[in-house]
Design goal:
With about 140 residues, the chain is an alpha+beta fold. It has one domain: RutC-like (60s Ribosomal Protein L30, Chain: A). It has two helices and six strands, in the order βββαβαββ. A six-stranded mixed β-sheet has the order 1-2-3-6-4-5. Strand 4, helix 2 and strand 5 form a beta-alpha-beta unit. The two termini are about 25 Å apart.
Length: about 140
């Protein structure tokens, strides 16, 4: 078993709390939940509405994955948190589904929550797996 690697990715939004963007061990990459920040600063705004926020969260997750030399095709499991579950679920699903090929979608859990950091409507975290576990490749700060 290798030692864990704690990734802070250049170009990804600053963490809203004390955590790493991703932690990797033995090819498994655990990506911290991303918020819909438009920029990298915690003072960046969120786009309006669940469709735009979902697109931005997925973009931010792709930034973290790319910083680790990975892409959406490496995702195995996803957790989605929604503050307006009944109102946002269908629209979020349509945006989410457009990012993954039918028959190649990750395992997923989606739950309604009372609140998220900085007033976001959505947060998504994930687990990915590197194909070649012998060579971690990350663009870390």
């Amino acid at each position: 078993m290798t030692s864990p690697i704690f990734h802070m990715i250049n170009g990804a939004p600053d963490p809203v709390a004390p955590f790493s963007h991703a932690v990797e061990q033995d090819g498994w990459v655990f990506v911290t939940g991303q918020m819909p920040f438009i920029g990298t600063s915690l003072e960046s705004s969120y786009p309006q509405g669940i469709e735009a926020q979902t697109r931005q969260v997925l973009k931010n997750l792709q930034t973290v994955l790319a910083g680790c030399g990975l892409g959406l095709e490496h995702i195995l499991s996803v957790r989605i948190f929604l503050t307006h579950f009944d109102e946002d679920y269908e629209v979020m699903n349509a945006v989410y589904a457009s990012h993954f090929a039918a028959g190649r979608r990750p395992a997923r859990t989606c739950v309604g929550v009372n609140g998220l950091a900085k007033g976001a409507r959505i947060e998504i975290d994930l687990v990915a797996r590197r194909g070649d576990v012998s060579t971690p490749a990350c663009d870390t700060a």
